[in-house]
Design goal:
Blueprint lengths: L17 H7 L3 E4 L11 E4 L13 E3 L10 H10 L2 E6 L5 H9 L2 E5 L20 E6 L1 H12 L3 E4 L6
Parallel strand pairs: 1-2, 1-3, 3-4
Antiparallel strand pairs: 4-6, 5-6, 5-7
Helix pairs in contact: 1-4
């Protein structure tokens, strides 16, 4: 779930559209930031509460709450410590948290066009003000985002290219 797109006061929960998972072409062992409502995430297990305090296992999907200036920091710290999955975040390349994540990821898929996230009722949001990126950690995540790029979901960038 993401919490960043304006919602006219009705909700601040936004869900990842199914086409992203179709392009990724994988099944996750765990959705580590799952809402209490059904979503399109192809996963075997979900964590809906206390995700930052319980162990994660296997190949994870993380669309953590975007709220707050540094709200993603603890989620990204745990994601990269876990080392196996895909994390969806806003594309805010100048933010310190983004730059830290960039240096820890194996690759990043910058999604194009901008993602119109879904409300809990299934309706689609309006044009978002920022783009979206998928960070890959581990071989399975890297393969999934490279495959998604090949299916037209965006373009892949590698942080260690030319280093």
């Amino acid at each position: 779930m993401s919490k960043w797109e304006a919602s006219a006061g009705a909700t601040d929960e936004w869900f990842t559209p199914a086409y992203i998972f179709e392009a990724l072409g994988c099944v996750f062992d765990m959705d580590v930031a799952a809402p209490d409502l059904p979503t399109h995430v192809p996963c075997l297990h979900s964590i809906t509460k206390d995700s930052l305090t319980v162990p994660w296992r296997g190949f994870v999907w993380m669309n953590a709450p975007f709220g707050g200036r540094n709200g993603l920091d603890p989620w990204l710290d745990k994601f990269f410590e876990h080392g196996d999955g895909i994390a969806l975040t806003p594309d805010r390349t100048s933010a310190p948290w983004f730059q830290r994540a960039w240096h820890k990821c194996d690759a990043a898929l910058f999604l194009s066009p901008k993602v119109r996230f879904l409300r809990p009722d299934g309706s689609q949001g309006v044009s978002p003000s920022t783009g979206t990126v998928l960070f890959a950690s581990g071989a399975e995540g890297l393969a999934a985002i490279e495959g998604a790029a090949g299916r037209g979901l965006g373009f892949v960038a590698y942080p260690r290219a030319g280093a």
